[in-house]
Structure formats: structure tokens, C-alpha cells
Automatic annotation (TrEMBL):
GO terms for cellular component: cytoplasm. It is found in: Cytoplasm. Gene3D superfamilies: 1.10.150.130, Intergrase catalytic core. Residues 1-84 form the Core-binding (CB) domain. The keyword Aminoacyl-tRNA synthetase does not apply. GO terms for molecular function: DNA binding; tyrosine-based site-specific recombinase activity. It comes from Pelagibius litoralis. Residues 105-305 form the Tyr recombinase domain. It comes from the Bacteria. SUPFAM superfamilies: DNA breaking-rejoining enzymes (SSF56349). InterPro entries: CB (IPR044068), DNA_brk_join_enz (IPR011010), Integrase-like_cat_sf (IPR013762), Integrase_catalytic (IPR002104), Integrase_recombinase_N (IPR010998), Integrase_SAM-like_N (IPR004107), Recomb_XerD (IPR011932), Tyrosine_recombinase_XerC/XerD (IPR023009). GO terms for biological process: cell division; chromosome segregation; DNA transposition. This is Tyrosine recombinase XerD. Forms a cyclic heterotetrameric complex composed of two molecules of XerC and two molecules of XerD.
């Protein structure tokens, strides 16, 4: 039905190093537009500017957030630029369309006290499940990794140098992320029980050659018996929600991405500079990192409004208003 969709996605993977999750998002966005075009007897390859405008109008009427609609339009722009570059179209129907106007939403964050409650609750469980959970939370908060980067960490990345993690992020780019002492301790405790999560680890006798082989048969730091061979992003999200409830926090506030935001905003609160933060987060553009300066600004504004005497009305000193 859409003959150029797969070649377009193959180009993104081969030439731009797009990750699997990114490719799936592009596929969903383009297939959504293709579905919109079918009753109009159109196709992705032949759609015109008015088709695109009608699609965006439908998304707006359905209540789609401007940010999500802008992402879909971005996918369409790249698809039509691909068709033009391949000589499959002479025009780009998306060229004259403006992106939906959107405000810049501040990231959700947790306070340092809330993160401490999560970590304390995770550390209290000393069985393999608890040790793995503690390692996941410690690593998320100590490194600011994306959850996709966390679950796809290879065992070798954590064994080369315990002071650093070698992370392969967006665009297949590697970066080094320092580990805190607490994260190193949690990681070492988890590694001692990691074999419990290997597919055939339970059949191997402790200390024998079979146990050694079982420990070596998965390349992933967080192996799983699922199809991917490692923990999924969805499962990590579930584990964090459950941990939040046990820590008596609002589970709706807690997610792997919120832990990444907490890492960044807390570092900035304690004097980290934006360039260092950009490198640790793996942002290609520092403008992406600068969103955290707005978080800090909002927090300082709230602090002044709450605690400054002038914020509550006239400030009286010796009976005179100042």
C-alpha cells in the first residue's frame, strides 16, 4: 500500500543511525497519515499540501497535543524530503506548512527527598529482585541514562572500569558517564546475583563450570528471559511505579524519564555547568539541555514567592513600611 515507507526507514537506519524505537515511531506516524488518506483515495507518495493541512486539522479537533502533532509533521517532512532526494517527487507538499504552535513544557521532576525515599525503599529489599531494582534506580539517578540506554547496556560496559559506564546512545554515539560510589556499590551487589536472571542459570550448580557458562551466555547487563534477551523499557517503568507506591509516593509522578530529569536538575542545583551536563545526558544540542535552567528559574521564583517577606505584603520594621 505504501511502497516507499520501508526504503525510507532503511535510509534512516543506515545513514542516520536511527534506533529501533525511533523507526517504529516514524512508521506509526506515517501509517497514521496513510490511514487518513485512504477514504480520500490518496496515498502517502501522492499526497498534496491540502491533504497535510486537513490531517493536521483533524488531529487538532481530536485534541492531540501540539507537540505530538508537530512530531508527526516532522516525520512527514522527512519522508517527503526523502522522496524529492530520490527523484520520486518533484515537490515537497510539507514545505509551506508551519508546525503547530506549542509552548515549551517544563520537565516533571522529583525532589531530592522523594528520590531518597525511592532509593531507601529499593535498598531495603535484599533478595535478587531487590538488588536488581536498587541497581536500576541507582544507575538511573546517578547517570541520567535514557531508559532505552539503560536496558541495552552490555555487561562489558560495566566491567571495563567501575568508575565509568560506556553508553551507546542516540545516533549510535558512545559516551562515558561517571558512576557515584553508591551506584558502584549497588551495581557490584547486583552483579553478584545477576546469574539468577539468566535463562538456564537455575539449572547450573553453584560454583561449577555449568554455572560459569550460564553467567557468560548473555551479553546484557540486565538479562531477561523475554524475546529481547534483556529487560524492556516497559518493565522498568512498571518496577518504578511499584517502587513509588511502596515508598508512599504518587506513582503517576515516577518514571524512568522523570529520574533522568531529577539527575539533571539536581546536578544543576548543586552547581554543575551546562556543557558538562550536556555531555552526560548525551544531548547533541545544548539548547535541549537549557530547559533545565528554566526548571531552576521556576524553583527559585517559587522560593522567593513563598519565603520573601515582601511577597506576603508590607514588610514592617519598627512600625514603618518599607
Amino acid at each position: 500500500m505504501t511502497p516507499q515507507l520501508d526504503p525510507f526507514l532503511e535510509m534512516l537506519a543506515a545513514e542516520r543511525g536511527a534506533a529501533g524505537n525511533t523507526l517504529e515511531a516514524y512508521r506509526r506516524d506515517l501509517e497514521s497519515f496513510a490511514g487518513f488518506l485512504r477514504p480520500r483515495r490518496g496515498s502517502l507518495e501522492s499526497a498534496g499540501t491540502e491533504d497535510l493541512r486537513a490531517f493536521l486539522s483533524q488531529l487538532a479537533r481530536a485534541g492531540m497535543a501540539p507537540r505530538t502533532a508537530a512530531r508527526r509533521l516532522s516525520a512527514l517532512r522527512q519522508f517527503y524530503r526523502f522522496l524529492v532526494s530520490e527523484g520520486l517527487r518533484g515537490d515537497d507538499p510539507s514545505a509551506g506548512i508551519d508546525s503547530p504552535r506549542q509552548g515549551r513544557a517544563l520537565p516533571k521532576i522529583l525532589s531530592e527527598e522523594e528520590v531518597d525515599r525511592l532509593l531507601t525503599t529499593a535498598r531495603a529489599q535484599k533478595d535478587p529482585e531487590g538488588l536488581r531494582l536498587a541497581a536500576l534506580v541507582e544507575l538511573l539517578y546517578a547517570t541520567g541514562l535514557r531508559v532505552s540506554e539503560l536496558v541495552s547496556l552490555r555487561l562489558a560496559a560495566a566491567q571495563r572500569d567501575q568508575r565509568l559506564l560506556i553508553v551507546r546512545g542516540k545516533g549510535n554515539k558512545e559516551r562515558m558517564v561517571p558512576l557515584s560510589e553508591a551506584a558502584k556499590e549497588s551495581l557490584a551487589e547486583y552483579l553478584a546475583v545477576r546469574a539468577a536472571y539468566l535463562p538456564r542459570a537455575g539449572k547450573a550448580k553453584k560454583g561449577g563450570e555449568a554455572a560459569k557458562a550460564a553467567r557468560q551466555e548473555s551479553p546484557w547487563l540486565f538479562p531477561s528471559r523475554g524475546a529481547s534477551g534483556h529487560l524492556t523499557r516497559h518493565r522498568v517503568g512498571q518496577l518504578l511505579k511499584d517502587l513509588a507506591r511502596r515508598a508512599q509516593l504518587d506513582a503517576a509522578k515516577v518514571s524512568p524519564h522523570v529520574m533522568r530529569h531529577a539527575f539533571a536538575s539536581h546536578l544543576l542545583d548543586h552547581g554543575a555547568d551546562l556543557r558538562s551536563l550536556q555531555k552526560m545526558l548525551g544531548h547533541a544540542d545544548i539548547s535541549t539541555t537549557q530547559i533545565y535552567t528554566h526548571v531552576l528559574g521556576e524553583r527559585l521564583k517559587s522560593l522567593v514567592q513563598t519565603h520573601h517577606p515582601l511577597a506576603k505584603g508590607p514588610f514592617l520594621t519598627k512600625g514603618r513600611a518599607r
